[in-house]
Design a protein that fits this description.
Elements (H helix, E strand, L loop, with lengths): L1 E3 L6 H14 L5 E7 L6 E6 L19 H15 L5 E5 L1 H12 L8 E6 L7 H9 L5 H11 L10 H5 L10 E4 L8 E5 L2 H7 L4
Length: 206
């Protein structure tokens, strides 16, 4: 485990800097991550091959419209069918990392050219509750995300998915890397290397 000294005012800006560097320096060919729309009203997983698209990345946005493991499965199938060997950094919630690994055991995902990158997850809202907070409560995604990250998920967090309030696997213990922000100094991202591939990608910013 080590810390990354990356420019940025907070963990999200540091993530953007890190993955923009990986794309720009061609350490990876694409980054699959949650990206918010310019109006900050919704967010979907997007495969970004251009660093410009990472300006709107925010894997911390507390909504899960689909378990991204399904998208990873479709992505690797399409890449395999086309004969491509693109190196993809996949930024997932811990539950999605675990689901992706289970799909790999069933041969529904190929991990050969993937970097599975987890992060500390404070939980998510159901889609209907998320939109209720945005539309009816007149809140915005940035505020919702920062408040949830500040308080972290617990049984008293109003509106969170029931499975999230009961989850004790908010840290990715499998995959290639886990990026932690809980309990870290604001100037650092703490990175736990979980595999040789994780070491490769974690050190690539140097």
């Amino acid at each position: 485990m080590y810390s990354l000294n990356i420019d940025g005012k907070d963990s999200l800006e540091k993530l953007k800097t890190l993955f923009t560097h990986l794309l720009t320096e061609q350490k990876v060919d694409g980054v699959l991550t949650l990206i918010g729309d310019p109006e900050q009203r919704s967010a979907v997983p997007v495969l970004a091959a251009d660093p410009v698209h990472l300006k709107l990345m925010n894997p911390y946005i507390p909504v899960q419209t689909v378990n991204a493991a399904r998208i990873v499965s479709a992505l690797t199938r399409d890449l395999g069918d086309s004969g491509r060997e693109d190196r993809i950094a996949v930024i997932l919630r811990p539950c999605e990392v675990r689901a992706t690994i289970e799909l790999a055991k069933l041969r529904q995902v190929s991990l050969d050219h993937l970097y599975l990158i987890g992060f500390d997850c404070p939980g998510t809202y159901p889609v209907t509750e998320f939109h209720h907070q945005l539309e009816d409560q007149k809140r915005d995604m940035e505020t919702m995300t920062s408040e949830l990250m500040g308080g972290f998920a617990d049984a008293d967090s109003p509106g969170l998915r029931a499975s999230c309030t009961m989850c004790d696997g908010f840290y990715a213990a499998s995959g290639d890397l886990n990026i932690s922000w809980i309990g870290t100094d604001s100037s650092d991202l703490t990175v736990t290397v979980l595999s040789e591939k994780g070491e490769e990608i974690g050190r690539a910013h140097v």
